Structure formats: C-alpha cells, structure tokens
Amino acid sequence: QKEVEQNSGPLSVPEGAIASLNCTYSDRGSQSFFWYRQYSGKSPELIMSIYSNGDKEDGRFTAQLNKASQYVSLLIRDSQPSDSATYLCAVYRTYKYIFGTGTRLKVLA
Amino acid sequence: ETGVTQTPRHLVMGMTNKKSLKCEQHLGHNAMYWYKQSAKKPLELMFVYSLEERVENNSVPSRFSPECPNSSHLFLHLHTLQPEDSALYLCASSQGLVYEQYFGPGTRLTVT
How far are the Cα atoms of A26, B22, B99 from residue A8, in angstroms, in the given order? Predict the structure, then answer.
C-alpha cells in the first residue's frame, strides 16, 4: 500500500464544472496536508494547506480533511482551462514529507 | 529576487564530473529541502534542514552531499553520478517543518 494514493487520471471536466480530486494516506500520525498544482515542466505551486478536520476554502478552492477516514480532497469550483495541470497531494509526519503521484486534471473548453 | 531561486536551471554532466546546485530562499524561512522528481515517479524527499541542521536524510547515496551554510542558502554537491540520477532537482523552503513548502523552479540535470 502506498503511503499517499491518488488516482492518476486524467480527470476531465467541462469548463465551469466542479472538479473533485481525492487523496488517501496510510499513516494516522500524519499532521499536515497539502495540495500543490504542477504544470508540465514547472515546479509545484502551493494551492492549499489544511491541518484539522473539516473544510477550508480559498477562492474557488476547498480542501476537505477527514482524519478518521484518512482522506483529503480538493474541490475546484468553476473550473477553467487554466486549471488543467497535475495536482499533487502531500502529507507531513515528523520529518517525512510524502507526495502522491498526482492526478492529472483536464478542463475542457 | 523573490521566493526561492535555483541555479543553474539546466545542467549536463558526465559521470566523472563534480558540480553543485545552489538554492536561495528570500522568504525568511527556517527550513529548506531538496527533492528529486523523476518521470512517472512521485516527488522524493532527499534532505531536510531545519535551522541549518540536517534533520532527515532519506537513504540518499553518498554521491549527493548537501550543505546548508545559513538559513537562506542550500547546496547540493554532486560527484560520480549515474545516468539514473538524471531528473528534476527541486529546492523548497518553509517556515517551520509542519507548514507549507514553497518550491524553486528546479534544476534539470542530465547525466551522460
């Protein structure tokens, strides 16, 4: 079992729709959770961080954390073609940062 | 300069060469990191420095040698690399270990 798992996709959504990206993790001791966006050939760019159970909203993005079920999700409202990228889920626990392989999102105009 | 910068952006080196990658953060952070990103594989954490002390070394071969002379600068010294070491090397920084990281643009390394 991978420590951080994501569906590799691609996840295709029409422009203006909600994109839902999911991530599960295996270590219950995980403390911090992050979503990054990575365009092809570029470095990861932070979208959201979340540290406690519940929802956290920032503009069109909402991160959701459920520690009991060990999953974290990212919702992108009003998806735009510029949101087309690979979305990386990352988890931190005591000096260890574990990244998932990423979900490729395609927003169709 | 703002954010996290890395030099060089591209590097081609032979297996017998010695080279160094440089990272500088302009964010006032106290933790810095080196990652390796290979095609079709997740980001791999290589080294973690907090307050200029190395706190994690994830079983990285000794041909990679990090150096953190102060909280703003991080180096990765390379020697006797193998072709499988070709990858994108990313530097990141954060204000504290548990908090979000900010990445530099990366160095694309090719070992011939």
Answer: 18, 32, 25
| Pair of tokens at residue A86 | 């690979």
For the record, the structure tokens of B15 come out as 């297996």
Q: What is the pLDDT of residues A54-72, one digit of tens each?
A: 999 999 999 999 999 999 9
The secondary structure of residue B16, as a DSSP letter, is T
A→B contacts (Cβ < 8 Å), by residue, are 4, 31-32, 34, 36, 42-46, 49, 51, 88, 90, 92, 95-102
Do strands A19-25 and A71-76 pair parallel, antiparallel, or not at all (unpaired)? antiparallel
C-alpha–C-alpha distance, residues A63 and A53, integer Å: 10
| Positions of E strands within B42-111 | 44-50, 53-57, 64-70, 73-79, 87-94, 102-103, 107-111
The 8-class DSSP code of residue A83 comes to: G
- Between CA A85 and CA A54 the distance in angstroms is 25
- Over residues B52-84, the pLDDT tens digits come to 888 877 789 999 999 999 999 999 999 999 999
Q: Pick from A8, A30, A41: which is nearest to A91 by CA?
A: A30
CA dist., res. B101 & res. A30, Å (int)? 16
